[in-house]
Amino acid sequence: MKTIYNKLLFLILLFPLSVLAQGTLSGTVVDKASNQPIPGVNVVVQGTQNGTATDFDGKFTLSNVPKAAVIEFSFLGFKTLTFPYNGEKTITISLEEDSAQLDEVVVIGYGSVKKKDATGSVTQLAAKDFNKGANVTVENLLSGRVAGLTINAGGGAPGSGSQIRIRGGSSLSASNDPLIVIDGLPITNTTNVGSTSILASLNPNDIESFNILKDASASAIYGARAANGVIIITTKKGGKKLAIDYNFQYGSGQVQNKLDVLNSSRYQAFIQQNHPDRFNQLGIINPNITDDPSTPINEAQQLFNTDWQDAIYRNTDFVDNNVSIRGELFKFLPAKLTFGNTYQEGLRLTNQFTRNNVNMALNPKFFDNHLKINVSGTYSSEKNRFANQVEGTAIRFDPTKPVYNPYSNNFSGFFEYENPSDPTGLAAQSPRNPVADLLQTNDQGTNRRFLGNFEIDYKFHFFPALRAVVNFGFDESKGIRTIRKGTVGVGSSEVLNNEFIGTNIEDEDIRRNKLLDAYFVYNKEFGKVNLEATAGYSYQRFEFSGFRSGNRQNPTAVESFPASPDEVLLGYFARTNIGINDKYLFTFAMRRDGTSRFSEENRWGNFPSAAFAWKINEDFLKESKFVSDLKLRLGWGISGQQAIPVGDFYLPRYSTGLLNSQYSFNGVAVQVGVPQSYNPNLKWEETTSYNAGFDYGLFDGKVSGSVDAFYKLTDDLFFDSTPYADGSNFGNQGPANGGSFSTKGIEFNLNADVINTDNFNWNVNFNATTFQRRIESLPGGGADQFLGDAGAGVGGTSQINQVGFTPSSFYVYKQLYNPDGSAAEGAFADLDGNGIINGDDRYIYKNPDPDAIFGFSSNMKYKNFDFSFFLRASIGNRILNQVTAARAYSNFAVNNDGQLANIPSSFTNNQFDVLTNESLLSDVNVENGSFLRMDNITLGHTFPKWLEGKASVRLFAGVQNAFIITKYSGIDPEINGGLDNTIYPRQRQFLFGANVKF
Amino acid sequence: MKKIKFNLFFLLFATTVFVSCENDLEITPENPNVFLSEEFFASENAYQKGLAGVYGNLSLTGVEGPGSSNIGGIDAGTSQYGRCLLYLQNLTTDEMIWSYEGDGGVRELQRNVWTASNPVIRGMFSRAMFQVALCNEYLRQTTPEKLSSRGVTNQQELTNISDYRNEIKALRALAYYHLMDLFGKAAFNTEDQPVAVAGEQYNRQQLFDYLESELTAIIPTLKAPRSNESGRLDQAFARMILAKMYLNAEVYTGQNRYQDCMTQCEAIIAGGYTLEVNYLDNFRADNDTSTEMIFSLQSDGDVTQNFGPTTVMINGSVGSLELNGASLGVGAGGWGGAIRLRKQFVEKFNGSDFDFDARKTLSGGGERSLDILDISNRAQGYILAKYSNLSSTGIPGSNSTFVNTDFPLFRLADVYLMYAEAQMRNDGATNTNNSANASSQSLGYINALRERANDGNFANVTTGQVTLDFILDERSRELHWEAHRRQDLIRFGKYTGGNYNWAWKGNAPNGVAISSNLNLFPIPSLAIVANPNLTQNPGY
Predict the structure, then answer these.
(1) Which of A857, B243, B424, B447 is the most core-located residue (most Cβ within 10 A)?
(2) pTM of this structure
(3) Nearest residue in chain B measured CA to CA from A917
């Protein structure tokens, strides 16, 4: 009632103005970019209630316009335009799209806040800032764009997921993955079977914005899951204006970098010099030629020149089609519908990724906008054909051997090392032809996923300062993976009783994720104080069950039905934002979370946070021409981490053995029942984080950005291999909390409109991050933890967690050198001086963390041309080159069973002969992996009036992964974890495409 | 009004949801192979399954196949009980060398340069202590109170469970015996302690005393020799532990107990075991039927798959040049020559005496050298063909990697040689001229083994030939690759020091003296971290 009264009062007060009306104006409103009419634009005489809206053809008529009145044209998503009326009869108004408008509101979880009022360290990336080019999965849109955020796919498998880290993560051995929230629904970070990654089913074209909550003052509202930061993904909503977008992209890719191994002729020379007795093993024997025993060489030997890396790779196609339709259904229901189809081939033969995707959004409003309903749903079907990692075999395979054996039909004509005395006909210890491995393996995955939410946002009629929001979320994936190999002539097929039995494996997973959030928001101004308060409740349940067939060709294979206990999370949360004088801003938040992963005693945790911001330029610098904006932000908060790999470890449990793990009494196999270790004391990891930062704007906002310094400390670290007192539990190690870990760093971000004229625009964005992670204490009295695969053999390690050092530092032997500076084979420093070289002589040498990472993007627009590129760099990251460490030895050229094998050309660096436990872990192979990568270059041209002005089209061409500059000797220094034991290479793609707007 | 109704409905709905949900935090395992403890014991045959779990720990590394492990810090397959034992008892001596020194911990073991962080040493300590934990749990779960609370009243089942409990105590004793021998100490946990309480440290004397009284007490409760169902232990098993403790008592406690050793050996022999006619039938795919087997660690290509000692030795002993896997019932190339012999062991069979000895299964010559100068070169060093995955009638086991051959932990031939040695040492300790003479009974035992190995065509050895050093060599000829060698060499003072050097001992190609502290393995550094009651052995 009160509102209606106010409105009436307002109307009465304004009434007299309309009496002075004098003229009538009509016209058309069009989009400046496309020249298309815009329906639904508000046309109002400023300071009056006199207004109208444009019709479907963008036309309007406004009567009673007084002379010298100012007419305002406004429409969501466009810059508001004012027009001084001077008695014109008809006009055409061009509205310019306002991409900056989106920036003004940042999403912070259970609500949003104006960017100028944000107190936490939050970065928003809207569509215009996304990476361009061939981005198959959504996280690639973000890569390198945000200070403090690293996204690394670690290789080039199509659709593969990336390691995503915000500020380096907060955990040592539990998950470092940030929480990802899609339209209010937090999703699991476990990839479903048959899928390539958790985000692979999303269509990048559906994404409206990312909001990255980096510090705990922003993320703590997500409580127990927020320690690694939060990425909030918002999908595109329905609009009032009818708009049809069609995007097409084609890419052609090829291998950019291969590992340098000896080619056929160099290899022949190498064998002649180093293994002369094996020279007659080169190539294959031509049965049609007889050997002349009087000559030292075998005349029947036929040498080939095979580049096995060329043989396993191919040129790839990438096709991406996307149609998006936005508009109002039944004249009141804003809706959006998109269809997406993505097809990306991998470099490895047979490897491909296909995704079909439908997304629908409905965003109606009822009762004078008091009730808003947002519905969105995505159904996607992802199809993969996976390819085995054959790089290791390809670089090892003798280059004088052919891919296909011209003289034998065994093994489907593929060359294989044969041994007639082995019942399988294959030489057991020799590598298998990697091309045959790829072509003879049919490894397919599908993942069907429905993800959607239904949100009701109701502003109370009797109390408009209060809103209630309820959000239901649902996410279900069903994945199937089938691996099949034949029984005849298949090199990598399973062998049973000396016979190939083939492979027929089927795995299925169903994952379900249900969410209910309900919260109230109260928003009111009290004089100079602006108060917003949010309080609510969240319930979420994750379910998982699966099926593993085992190899059905093997009669002893065992079917199993893995399942996880449901994971249930409850949270109660409250947050208030208080603004005083529009200068001093305070945020306080509190969340209380409960999880099913811990025992009743440790189940609940409290996660508080507080932040303060001061708009300095409102008090000082008001007159400054230089500084247009300056805001100080201080934040503190505690957030948690509960994503430990085991859901029921606090409960005493027994496991029964599979059929191949039994024990026989009287010759009858009995299933074993074995108690499992358990730990009822498991609890959250807790991360306390501090953040201080400035948001700045210079030269009237032409230059803007932020600087943040942060420190975070994680306590009660979770270690899943904490040593247990032997004999006291059912295992010698397992999950426990203990130890602490800190990260400190600085982030810098700058956005500049270098040139901004009618015809020429140039915008650049630069970000830089540096951080240092350090282990403060470890459980069990600070005992070192050994980790990281050694790179060859079983059971060895190459990395260490030691107090005072960066996690996963390399733990290696110190190589000794000859007087001429070359590495002395087999000579290592006896660091403990006891005369024996053993594991105690290792030392910490460097770590995989970069000293600094940078991103630089440039966007230029000249008339209808646009040109952009994006560079990324990493400085100081180290890599243990395990390809060299484990393979670059002259003796490695002979296999276990005496067959020849190729070695990396890096053999010539050290000229080592024999692989030893120490040379495998020599510091000589820890290399600097700094790099500068040109991720994407795109050149486009827009034709604004296509089809007689009914549409606009932009054509573009680009290069994805154009080049990389690095001193690293391996294929690609951009790997995860610092251990390079061959990777799936990234491809370089040439792209063409079109964006059409109707 | 409509709106208010809607609001009320919404509030009511929300409240209901809030309240009912906190109970959802109580969850149960959903994996069909995982049960809450009480749920497990309510299931059918749970007590037999639990027993199989404890016995199974001597063969299996985990419940999910040969690649799984219930202990960590070591490669899953390598963590098998018998394999760790084999590595520590054989790989550190003259009998065996492993080609792939990149495998965690192997290089340090076979070159006698190990440290307290060696994964195999930790694997042995943890696997044996895990066995103790399993035994204690079984005893806790089978107390009369527990059984009655679960309504177990069937008399037959109660009798069975009582038998199971006694066997469990003997299995626990075996684990403590191995810890005493290898590490000289252990964390002492019993069923009286709750889970997750670190045990006190027991030194060698304490363990010796405990084992002696425990085994003596349970022997009468165990089944008579050869009367239990196969796969389960009996009195002879317990006596075997006692006999070995007594034989090595001087090393363990400084006091000799040779007479007690003889007594136990005689009791075992009286149990009715007889030598298997064909020596090699003890090491073949059907060796579970051997008449001289007192206890073996099961392996089966279908139902008990593991990377235990027999799978490793059979696949590993296939020569890289010979590709003789088919003759051993595994893949032709086996593991490409993973295991070879050191020269000093090969020389134990020097001389025409052994030309037809069935125990001499080694081969070499030609391209294959006797000396090993480069451990990674698999053409150096002789190979052995003692173990096989073919049955006594030549039928290959069901799986060409995971063998059907059981690992002979205790067998009669060992008892014969133990008796002879104890008798001679006892003689040497008691007679006045300090000479150790073999009795006719001892000679009989030794010659029985030699005759068996030579189809009865062997000239018997005589008192003059049989010295203690002869016994040591004969033990190696008879019992090599059966996890005895290190213990034997220590008893003869030849493991550490420089009395006897073999190839690569002390990390030198021809062998050098090593420090006497290596007679004991170090307590794994992480075991001390987790249990501060434990102290490190001297010299580490």
Answers:
(1) B243
(2) 0.82
(3) B102
